[in-house]
Specification:
The chain is built from 8 helices and no strands. The protein is mainly alpha-helical and 172 residues long. The chain is globular. Helix content is 74%, strand content 0%.
Length: 172
Amino acid sequence: MNETARIDQKELGEIYDLYADRIYHYIYVRVGDQRLAEDLSAEVFIRMLEAVRVSAGWHTSLSGWLYRIAHNLVVDHFRRKPQREVLELDERIVSTEGSPLSVVEKRLTQQKLRSALRNLTEDQQQVIVLKYMEGLSNLEVAQVMDKTEGAIKALQHRALASLRRVLEEQEA
């Protein structure tokens, strides 16, 4: 019997409480849309529940399994919908701390980074988001991506070089 078959409702709630914000942030960084990130995050936990019900959950790393589900949902989303860059301008800009100009500049910088990331391979995108935006260790990233730690270090090096090149091209 696999370990997920023994999880009760309370434990599922604790898993959600522990990982919901992290999974949302991971997805939000990739998609740049709050509502979409909320929907996809909810879908991650729906899929987790469905898998637990049929005893088909994770085998080694729960966090790795959840990030892998999230990654697959993001990839599926981008395959289904063509990319359009949209900068949301709404009343939250005025109500946030700091000047509206600094908020817009921050959003434009985030949008540039997301756009640059899309020019990388899927693996390169994932390693950068997991390592630098989610703060996972190389070992944790390796578990999520089902690769060795050495492969993650090499992939990270290539990803950063590619990202630097893309950002320099955008500036030129």
